Amino acid sequence: MGSSSHQKGRIRTKKPLGIQLFECVQGSPISFRSCQALVLVLTFLSYASYHATRKTTSIVKSVLDPKTNLGMLHWPSHLYLQNLKGSENNTLSSGWAPFNAKDGTALLGEIDLAFLGVYAIGMFFAGHLGDRVDLRILLTIGMIGTGLFTAAFGAGYWFNIHSFYYFLGMQMMAGLFQSSGWPSVVAVVGNWFGKSKRGLIMGIWNAHTSVGNISGSLIAAAMLKYGWSWSFAVPGIMIALVGLTVFLLLPVSPDVIGIQEDLHFKDSEKTDMDAPLLERSSEAKEKAVGFIEAWRIPGVAPFALCLFFCKLVAYTFLYWLPFYISHTAIGGQYLSDSSAGVLSTLFDVGGVVGGILAGHISDHLDARALTAASFTFSAIPALFFYRIYGSVSLTWNIALMFVTGMLVNGPYALITTAVSADLGTHSSLNGNSRALATVTAIIDGTGSIGAAVGPLLTGYISARSWSAVFTMLMASALVAGLLLTRLVVAEVVAKMESRRAPAPAAGDLPMSTTTTMDEP
């Protein structure tokens, strides 16, 4: 395909200023491999910084609303207060109005709902927009805007603001700007990397989610001693700086830096890993896929609905785990807010392992749905044991939290990365390169609605019983697995038939999402 016809179907983008400067100093064009490495690093840091800013709220909750649930625990409140007063590192503060009132937990839940609700709605529009504009500009605006409104939330402390609607507005704006992140980074990575071992590669790359959660928790916890405002301001400044770096350096696709895909590799050297994720064969195929058309791609709906419940569980832990830990006696003792925030990072450490493991297993079995369903069903007993035995001792809490994080975040990571990429390059699209961001946004946007519902329900249910919260989480994991039943059965049947049939040719596509989901 000629470059002129190719460019007509592509979005006009400019080579980043940082790459232009680098090539000027070096005296030669930047290599394809260097660009691949640069894309991986920048997109990893970008989304890690998104999650770092998203995590701060969960760390600060216990400071804003220190009295919540004192009478809702399994132990008498006077014993709880006595333990608090006896600890130098865990004193009961007065909190911050309006969150230190009787309905403080519900208000914090509504803040989470506002953020995630706007985030979910914005995701659908961001994905639609991402297939039509320069992804580098979209990502930069999203990151700087996120940093601005995250810091503005913390500024409420400095300016002595106690209006609930101020904090609500700041979180809604932050959620709107954050929605541009995920469709953008997945689409950029999809432009540079091929299909070989996609589950494993994206499982490792998707560690940015847990790395961001961990770094956000550690930074927010460390900043609490200077005032909770800094727990928002520092991550906000960091994501804005990373956003500027993205603007200066991120190449969104090979043709942006002047490399034509048919010149990347000689035929004898070209492999699946080197090949771009999407092959373009005609100008007509460059028309952006519509929202309804993307929903009709086989497999998008069941995986999107499954992610709804997966993210409901994952984001309940994201927003409420530090709060739960600080309000639960572990080994007969209560941890300080900062200690609870640090301890909660082990859930995300388990999530890193789970994401990589799920990706590797799905690659080995060539069965995305079977892998995701296995993890979600296994998460049910893990959630049960963490609730019952997590308070026995710190060792038990750490071990069970790690396993729970692994099983909860494994399918979440798999669906948002490898599955989204599989469906964004589904055979029904005939190689269209302008669908990946839209499909990714649909799947993750639907999941984000569940992410909004989970923390909101937790804010109300936890006021009655944390056991009821865990029951809700176990039921959600069960439904998530059941939604994939038809796809799992189809994958198993396909595997059994493939063993009886002759081995397919090397060029065939035995991908489960394209083989089993085309059925009406």
Automatic annotation (TrEMBL):
**Do you know which PROSITE patterns this protein is assigned to?**
MFS
What residue stretches are annotated with the Major facilitator superfamily (MFS) profile domain?
A: 41-493
Q: Which InterPro entries match?
A: MFS (IPR011701), MFS_dom (IPR020846), MFS_trans_sf (IPR036259), Sugar_P_transporter (IPR000849)
Q: Which Pfam families match?
A: MFS_1 (PF07690)
Entry's localization field: Membrane
The molecular function GO annotations come to: transmembrane transporter activity
UniProt keyword Transmembrane helix, yes or no:
yes
Instruction: Please provide the record's keywords in A-Z order.
Output: Membrane, Sugar transport, Transmembrane, Transmembrane helix, Transport
Q: Which BP terms does GO give this entry?
A: phosphate ion homeostasis
TM region(s), chain numbering: 106-125, 137-159, 165-193, 205-224, 230-250, 300-320, 340-358, 370-389, 395-415, 436-461, 467-489
Its name, as the record gives it, is Major facilitator superfamily (MFS) profile domain-containing protein
Q: Which organism is it from?
A: Panicum virgatum (Blackwell switchgrass)
